Amino acid sequence: MSSSRVLVLNSGSSSVKYQLLDMRDRSRLAVGLVERIGEQSSRLRHTPAGGESRERTGPVADHDAALKAVAEELARDGLGLDSPELAAIGHRVVHGGKSFTRPTLIDEAVLAEIERLIPVAPLHNPANLTGIRTARALRPDLPQVAVFDTAFHTTMPESAARYAIDVKTADEHRIRRYGFHGTSHAYVARATAELLGRAPEDVNVIVLHLGNGASASAVRGGRCVDTSMGLTPLEGLVMGTRSGDMDPAVIFHLMRVGGMSADEIDNLLNKKSGLIGLCGDNDMREIRRRVDEGDEEARLAFDIYIHRLKKYIGAYYAVLGRVDAVAFTAGVGENASPVREAAVAGLEGLGLSVDGALNAVRGDRARLISPRNARVAVAVVPTDEELEIATQTYELVGKNS
Asked: β-strand 54-57 against 43-48: which pairing, if any?
């Protein structure tokens, strides 16, 4: 393709994150964020490559106004949406169900299916749709691609994706494990193989995406065979504000004994549980500071977090049979050395350990933190979901041009 730029859009309910990349060298030309859309205190922060950040404050009424403001900022740097260098726009879409297993060129049928999936992603898919429709209105002539968080996990076998409930009920209501953070897991699994100097199809990796939201995946030869998040992002690891795995009967107990409504329980488990429910903080840096000062509440929260994480490492070791690497990524995974150390402590029998000096080093490049000649590599691999979306978008547009 003669055009080499891809604009990546991540539209939330009240925000738009964006990056413009040149795929010839995978460089970032600009990054930015519009937040608090629909409020009087809206803000746009825009940073061109090699330049000073700029901010605009004031009301941004809706996503249409937000994207027009983004276009104006890009144009100020000679990177406008009308540039012939712009090859495509790639959109992050959280939920693709079983329908979308790969990046997909957007047309009316695709939009209709994303809309049909709103009941299983009520917080995310509507915002993603709004961003897509707005961008298509601004550039109806430009290829636009949906890259789905769930797509990487559609390779799971039915034995991993199915819940043990009545099949007819499950199928009628689309109840199954879908998994999320898929673009991150895909990127990190491939980058880990590259770090080891091996082809992705020859490597088995446990990927631990640890941020405020957290998920684990078992990746065999570049294909996901199990993941911790389920029908929604609530299942799995202990997270910043989400409970993760829990006896489903707790919900019935809270209804019958606690007198709580479905909405109140939803809010409890998604926004008031996890680390913040256990100790009042969901920032791992603050929790570790409190642990170091002898705070027992923070210590218990940290121990519960690590206990769940270690269980998933062991479980996915069993699923894969052979593990070549465990890769830590995202905000906590990349920056919290005590989490990495604690997560593999006691797993030496499985070939897992970290070198204290290597683990303490901070950096923005993929690196090994396991001892030399370790049976299983332990790695820190900074994720790059925007680059993954841009790469998948550019490859698809190239194939169809």
From this structure: antiparallel
CB-CB contact of 316 with 376 (8 Å): no
Higher pLDDT, 2 or 282: 282
How far apart are the C-alpha atoms of 223 and 229, rounded to whole Å? 16
Cβ neighbours of 370 (radius 10 Å): 21
- Residue that the structure tokens 């332990």 belong to: 378
CA angle 143, 145, 151 (to 5 degrees): 160
Identify the CA nearest to 179 among candidates 224, 227, 146: 227
Indicate the pTM of the whole model: 0.92
DSSP string, 122-165: TTTHHHHHHHHHHHHHH-TTS-EEEEETTGGGGGS-HHHH--SS
CB 37 within 8 A of CB 48: no
* Contact by Cβ (8 Å): 110, 128: no
Q: Which two structure tokens, joined as six digits, stand for 243?
A: 């409970």
What pLDDT is stored for residue 3 in this prediction?
Answer: 84
pLDDT digits 0-9 by tens, 24-60: 999 999 999 998 888 899 999 999 998 889 999 999 9
d(CA 379, CA 340) in angstroms, rounded, equals 10
Residue whose token pair is 């897992």: 352
**Given this model, what pLDDT does residue 361 score?**
93
The pLDDT tens digits for 145-161 are 999 999 999 999 999 99
Active-site amino acid positions:
149
45 bridge partner residues: 33, 55
For 178, phi and psi rounded to 5 degrees?
A: -105, -40
**Does residue 258 sit in helix, strand or coil?**
coil
Q: Is there a contact between 296 and 303 (Cβ–Cβ < 8 Å)?
A: no
Residue 58: how many CB atoms within 10 A of its CB?
A: 10
Counting every residue written for the chain, the total comes to: 401
Give which of 115, 186, 192, 118 is closest to 155, Cα–Cα: 186
> Looking at residue 181, what DSSP letter applies?
-
Instruction: Read off the tokens for 374.
Output: 């370790």
Evaluate whether 320 touches 217 at the Cβ level (below 8 Å). Answer: no
